[in-house]
Amino acid sequence: MSLLTDLEWRYATKKMNGKKIPQEKLDYILEAARLAPSSSGLQQYKVIVISDSALLERIRLVAYDQSQITDCSHLLVFAAWDGYTDERISNVFNYIMDERGLPHETMDGYKQVILDLYERSGQEWQAHHAAKQSYISFAMAIAAAAEQKVDATPIEGFLSEKLDELLNLKGSGYKSTVILPLGYRESEQDWLVNMKKVRTPKSMFITEMTMADASTDVDLPAPMNLDSFVQK
Ligand SMILES: Cc1cc2nc3c(=O)[nH]c(=O)nc-3n(C[C@H](O)[C@H](O)[C@H](O)COP(=O)(O)O)c2cc1C
Fold this sequence. Notes:
By secondary structure, the protein is α+β, with helices and mostly antiparallel strands.
């Protein structure tokens, strides 16, 4: 089986059958999510795992009554930082330097460059930037689930403010971004299961470009290498 075969097999499951997925498959999917790359390696998001049926019932109410929420085995809630602060970034960088046996100062110059950029961009941009990173982890989880023959429905259709209240995220520095029920399809009751998978034709999706197609009329900044701010 190849990754492409697994991605063909998967679909946004509309009806799940309530069966539990084995712990090792859940662990595998979560590990794929944890191994995702993120901007500056900050992992500015986390995953909350929910299988408590009473809580899932409540979440379904803030997710447009989507049945996968209560018929899944486990619900993954991706939650990202609501903004960047010196303290948050320092904590991550210090942890990475400790793990690598390097002095904390190694990343000081780099940290200042990204903090200046983030501060200039404002809190809304920061939350959005962190949320984007969580989607990379989310995509890894979707691919890993497909590889494990576990069904998953990517879900953005929920009231994030309400979910944050339900999960006591308010004031935690995290906001929910996207959710992923994991489980098994109930094929007989799922209108989507046998539908053709449709994607934009390759000819429209992929564009190859050369200098001949690009603009030469751009005022380019002086070269700046972010790596030069890391003490080596
Ligand atoms: C970020 C995101 C949010 C989505 N939100 C929902 C949702 O709330 N409910 C749902 O049933 N499907 C949702 N989908 C599933 C898409 O509709 C589906 O992935 C798309 O139509 C492609 O079909 P496929 O995943 O079955 O190949 C979402 C997908 C993504 C990537």
